[in-house]
Amino acid sequence: MHKLTLIQVGDEIGLVLPSELLSSLGARLGDSLEAVETPNGLLLSGGPEVHERHMQIARRVMHDKRNILRRLADS
User: Fold this and answer.
1) What are the φ and ψ backbone dihedral angles of 43, each rounded to 5 degrees?
2) How far apart are the first and last CA of the chain?
3) What is the spatial distance between Cα 11 and Cα 13, in angstroms, rounded to a whole number?
4) Which domains does the chain have, with CATH numbers?
5) Among 39, 67, 70, 73, fewest CB within 10 Å belongs to which?
6) Residue 22 has pLDDT above 80, yes or no
7) Residue 10: per-residue pLDDT
8) CA Rg, the chain, in Å?
9) DSSP 12
């Protein structure tokens, strides 16, 4: 469990997220996050920027390791 702090940011309220939590979300400064209300509270996940970074990594791995992936698919 992480303790989060609310702070004043101009006329808005900001939420301070610990770096380890940001890391586990795959997020960094400037990214947007998505929050969904659930019966158990809020579900926080990485926004489109985080998803796109993950997809770029996946595409690179699939390209660089395509021969290995083909062999695995054939077995």
Assistant:
1) -110, 120
2) 42
3) 7
4) 5-74 (2.10.260)
5) 39
6) yes
7) 94
8) 18
9) E
